[in-house]
Structures are given as structure tokens and as C-alpha cells.
Design goal:
By secondary structure, the protein is an all-beta fold. Helix content is 0%, strand content 44%. It has one domain: Beta Barrel (OB fold (Dihydrolipoamide Acetyltransferase, E2P)), CATH 2.40.50.
């Protein structure tokens, strides 16, 4: 008899395995939605050269906490709209570019 492995969440319920991706936020112009660009690297089957390809994913951001340039982790979820199939899991690294406009400009 084979034992099955069940992942349990903090609430003790069986949690389904969901795909997670890490990428860069490229747009926050919509409300509660961010656009995350994922860079995928894959070796060419014949020539073995590493090719880069980018894909954009629309993710749900409930608190509008992510900013352009942030490195974020998104998790697959049920369809939330026509394009949104992902939700923001966590912000891994804040962008250094977003802290510049917060500082007061010098008066000349």
C-alpha cells in the first residue's frame, strides 16, 4: 500500500498544489491588478544555446501594495476575470526606483 502525501495549510485543511512564479512588476495602472513579467530561460534542443523569453501575467493585488520594479511571487488561482488567473503571494524585494519620488526635491 502506497501512502499519499497531503500538504496541509495552517488551518489544517488539505491545500492543493498551486504553481508559483517569481517575476518583476511592470505595471500597476489598474486597480487591484498588477502585471508581472516572468523571464524564462530554456536551452535550444539542437544547438544548446540558452534562449530567453518573457511572458506577462495579470495578478490580483488586493491591497495595491506592489509597485513597478518590485520582485514578487505570484500563485495560480481560480479565474478572477477575463485575464487574471494569478494572485500576489508576497513581495520578495522592493524596487529602489520607487523610493526616489518619495524624497522631497531640493529647492533651487
Amino acid at each position: 500500500m502506497a501512502e499519499s502525501t497531503v500538504v496541509t495549510s495552517a488551518a489544517g485543511q488539505a491545500a492543493p498544489r498551486r504553481t508559483e512564479k517569481v517575476g518583476l512588476v511592470v505595471s500597476t495602472k489598474m486597480e487591484k491588478t498588477i502585471v508581472v513579467e516572468i523571464e524564462m530561460r530554456k536551452a535550444h534542443p539542437k544547438y544548446k544555446r540558452v534562449l530567453k523569453s518573457n511572458k506577462k501575467f495579470y495578478a490580483h493585488d488586493e491591497q495595491n501594495s506592489a509597485r513597478v520594479g518590485d520582485m514578487v511571487r505570484i500563485r495560480e488561482t481560480r479565474p478572477l476575470s477575463k485575464l487574471k488567473r494569478w494572485s500576489l503571494e508576497e513581495i520578495i524585494r522592493r524596487s529602489s526606483l520607487t523610493s526616489l519620488p518619495d524624497e522631497a526635491p531640493e529647492a533651487r
